[in-house]
Each structure stands twice: as structure tokens, then as C-alpha cells.
Amino acid sequence: MTASLRRARPLLPPGSPAALHAPLFQNLMARLNAGGRHVVLDLGAASTAMLARLGRSRCYVEIADLAHFGGIDQLNTTETGPALADKAESLLPKRLSDEAIDLVFCWDLPNYLTLNALSALMHAIGRRAGPGALAHALVFYAERDMNERPGRFVPTADDELIDHGAPGAAIAAPRYSPEDLGNGMGHFEIDRARLLSNGMQEFLFRLGS
Amino acid sequence: MFERGKKEDDTIESQGANRTESDKTFGSLRSKVAGRGGDAAVIGRSIQINGDLRGDEDLRIEGDVSGTVELKNSALTIGKEGKVKADVYAKSIAVDGETRGDLYATERVSVHVNARVQGNIIAPKVSIEEGAHFKGSIEMDPAAVEKALGKTTASDTNKPLAERKSVSTPDTGSVPKKTAKDAATNLSPPSGTA
Predict the structure, then answer these.
(1) Which ipTM score applies to this complex?
(2) Which residues contact A36 (CB under 8 A, 6 or more apart)?
(3) Cβ B32 vs Cβ B44: under 8 Å
(4) Mapping DSSP to helix (H, G, I), strand (E, B) and coil, where does residue A23 land?
(5) Which pTM was predicted?
(6) How would you class B129 by CB atoms within 10 Å of its CB: exposed for 0-12, middle for 13-18, buried for 19 or more?
(7) Among B146, B134, B168, which Cα is nearest to A50's?
(8) Which of A173, A177, B136, B144 is buried deepest, with most CB atoms within 10 A?
(9) By the CB < 8 Å criterion, does B101 face chain A?
């Protein structure tokens, strides 16, 4: 009885979005618990829950909040080459540390970037990361449409995910294929993938040497 | 500090040879800066300061401040109207407005809803409310925080502020320190497919 009470999930207010079971995310969180120092880059918005979760480990956390600080529009340009690379670099947080990034949380942001923009961003991130660094992403796969704005994913106590993003109009999802992402994630290569209950594909990428 | 009628040098210390127009107007602003609200001195909405701000009592900023803010034994609140473009050193820092610069606090940094913060946060306790906007980094390793704060509060306190700013080093594409082995060892998932 005691054990079941401990494992009981907190009640969500009526109308709250459902928690999403994302096993690769859970796996990463479990590994953060295992100890050691980690350098984490979060491309999404800062959330109390995520910071509290990362605070259990000895983390150095960089938060880019690309959606709010105009990163998506700035990256989705017709620019290419060094100009786009410089822009991608400028959108990442200034650093206090030059430690290599271990882990990147992309959330659903790849869906909102062209492959060209995504590639520039991930190449910029790759330059800050060491070989073997991991990147986690959620990609619209089954659904044809997505919210016009990126989600705001926060972990529950059980490391499931809840999207607290504001509702908005539906736009066409790019529905990137694994082949698209193979080209669009810079030097990050697909390591594992899972189809989630909400129709999104959960990806874990690994930075090659 | 920041009290009406105190000596000039006690009120605001402005450093650097290149003073801006707003620096030159300190004399006329001093009495306004000194206005007190509650237990903290207040820099009002119409006040603009460009320079280094030092003090030894709690301060609330509702105006625009650029340069450096150092209240190492006191609390700083950046109000909803406040805009601070500075590295800030204080005992505690609460942000309701906008900041651009690194925030160093020996106790706590709180970023409240609708606040907009761009810079790095170094403090033993950090809270960021939902709806706040933050771009930067947060050191969550207590040992690393202690080390970073030690650099800025103990060994650097007698250095000029301009030198102390060098503690924050923007990334310019430097080579990451951690080795591939370090990165792979800590976070590698088990082999096999999902």
C-alpha cells in the first residue's frame, strides 16, 4: 500500500494536457541521476520543473529559448554558408565555461526549422560538444499538422513530458523522415528512435567524431 | 548609500574616463535616485545611469542602468520597469524586468514571471518562474558555484570592476575541455535498438 501510494502520480488539474511517455527521455534522465558532471544545452524555454529535475545532478545548464528570442525566424532565412553559421552561433548562449556539451534537448524545435537552418544550428552546437554527445528531439511523424508555435515541454515527477505550450492555429508539419534528419542534424547521427503515443517520433542522436 | 542628502561619493560611484551624458547628469539626478521605497533604495523609472553602481544596502531598480552593479552584501530587485545592462554582484537578485549581463549572487537569484534575462546566473539557489524568459547558463554544481563566487567575491573584491568582468568569457568557438571519453562515459545509452 505504501509503495503504491509513493508511486501514485500527482493529479493534474482538469483540462491539463496529458503526460507523454517518452522512453528515450526517461532513459536520459535516469542516466543523469547516475552521477558525474554534465553540460546540458536546452534549446527550449526555461522551466521550473526542468531546472529542478536537472538540479538533482551536477549540471551546467545552458538555455537558448530559441522560440522566444527570435531564433527560429532568424535561422529560417535564405542565407547560407558562413553567414548562416555565424547567425546560428550567435543564437546560442554566451558561455561561462568551455566544457563540452554532453546533452542537447531540442524538444520539437526541429519541426519549426528548415533543414538548412537545422543543419546550421546543429553544426554550431556540435562545435561546442564532444564526440559522443547526445541530442534528444521530438519530430511530428504521424500527424500532418502541428501547432504554429513550438511546445513548452516540462517533465513530470516520473519523467514523462507535458506540453504547456500555448494553443494556436494549426500549420502543416514538415514530417521529416529519418533520411531528412540524417542530413539536417549536422554531425549528429540517429542513435535510437521510438514512435510515441501522440504520433510523434522520439529521436536520440549521437555526435560522431 | 542612495540616501537623500548624503555625500556625492557615497551615493553613486561612477568609474571610467568616458562618461556619457547620463553620467554627467548624476548631480541633478542624485536626489531622485535617493528616493526610498519600503526598506530598499529605489532608482526610479525616469532615471538612466551609465557607469558602475556600488552600495551596501538593498536597492530596487525601476530605471535603466548600464555598467556594473555591485551590492555584495545586499539584495537587488530589478522591478518590472527596470532595464539593467550590466554584470550584477549581490547577495540576492530578484528580476521582474529586463537584464542583459551576468548575475552573481551569494545566496539566490529569482527570475519572476514576464522577466527577460539574457546572461549567465551563478548562485547557490536559482529559481525561474514559468513565463519568465531566460537565455544563458546556470551552474547547478554546488562546488562549481562556490568556486565561481569565490573568484568574484573573495579574490576579486579589491580589483577594479573592469578586471572582474573578465570572469565572464563569452564563447568564441573555443575548444571544449571535456574529452570525448568523458562525454561518452556518462551518457551513453545501452547498445541495441529501440
Answers:
(1) 0.87
(2) A57, A58, B185, B186
(3) yes
(4) helix
(5) 0.78
(6) middle
(7) B134
(8) B136
(9) no
Q: According to the model, what pLDDT value does residue B184 have?
A: 36
Q: Which of residues 71-100 of B touch A (CB under 8 A)?
A: none
Residues in chain B: 194
Residue with cell 494536457: A17
Among A139-148, A187-196, B123-132, B172-181, the minimum mean pLDDT is found in B172-181
Of B119, B133, B171, the CB nearest to A98: B171
Please tell me what DSSP assigns to residue A156: -
Q: Which residue of B has its CA nearest to A98?
A: B176
Of A120, A135, A128, residue with least CA distance to A44: A135
Q: How many residues make up chain A in this entry?
A: 209
Cell readout for B22 is 547620463
Q: According to the model, what pLDDT value does residue B141 have?
A: 83
Q: Which of residues 112-141 of A touch B (CB under 8 A)?
A: 127-134
Shortest CA distance to A61 belongs to which of B169, B97, B144?
Answer: B144
pLDDT (0 to 100) of residue A18: 84
Nearest to A98 by CA among A156, A157, A39: A39
Q: Is the pLDDT of residue B128 over 90?
A: yes
> Among A57, A127, A194, whose Cβ lies nearest the Cβ of B173?
A127
Q: Would you say residue B9 has pLDDT above 50?
A: no
Least confident span in A157-171, B55-69, B85-99, B162-176: B162-176
Percent of chain A with pLDDT over 90: 71
Alpha carbon A48 to its chain's center? 16
Torsion A83-A88-A93-A96 (CA) sign: negative
pLDDT at B24: 39
Q: What is the mean pLDDT of residues B133-157?
A: 77
User: Could you report the per-residue pLDDT of A29-77, keeping only the tens digit for each?
Assistant: 998 888 889 999 999 999 988 998 898 888 999 999 999 999 999 999 8
Window 120-179 of B, Cβ < 8 Å to A: 120, 122, 126-130, 132-144, 148, 168-171, 173-179
Specify whether the CB–CB gap between B39 and B56 falls below 8 A: no
DSSP codes, B4-65: TT--HHHH----SS---HHHHTHHHHHHHHT-EETTEEEE-TT-EEEEEEE-SS-EEE-SEE
Residue where the block lists cell 534549446? A43
CB-based contact, A187 to chain B, within 8 Å: no
